[in-house]
Amino acid sequence: MIIGLLMQKEDKKQSMADFVGECLLYYTKKYAQKPDSCYVHPERVDELKSITSVNIIPAKNISRINAWIGREDNLVLDKI
């Protein structure tokens, strides 16, 4: 993924799954297409097993409070 939306989790009480779910909805609304990938810190992958609409990909360069969401095919470039 070259271009994506990096979101930061602000609410410490919110579960990571709820946070990523909100991010996916925001991305879909903003770019009028669904993301297919979500990069998160490897320690967060187990918390996201309930999310099946995108590929959850562990990445050590992503902070524990962030999620990088986008499309591997970068079709979003047409919307920018």
What does the model show?
This protein is α+β, with helices and mostly antiparallel strands and 80 residues long. It has one helix at residues 16-31, and strands spanning 4-8, 37-40, 55-58, 66-70. The protein has a 4-stranded mixed sheet, covered by helices on one side.
Compact overview of the structure:
It contains 1 helix and 4 strands; from the N terminus they run E-H-E-E-E. With 80 residues, it is of the alpha+beta class. It has a 4-stranded mixed beta sheet, with helices on one face.
Descriptive terms for the model:
about 80 residues, alpha+beta, 4-stranded mixed β-sheet, 1 helix, 4 strands, globular
Amount of helix = 10-25%
* Contiguous uncertain segments of 5+ residues: none
List the helices and strands in order: EHEEE
Largest sheet: 4 strands, mixed
The average pLDDT is: 90
Sheet/helix structural class: alpha+beta
**What does the radius of gyration come to?**
12 Å
Cα shape: globular
Across the major sheet, the strand order is 1-4-2-3
Range of strand content: 15-25%
Instruction: Report the span from N to C terminus.
Output: 15 Å
| Whole-number tally of structural domains | 1
Work out the helix count: 1
Number of strands: 4
Please write out the topology.
Elements: E1 4-8, H1 16-31, E2 37-40, E3 55-58, E4 66-70
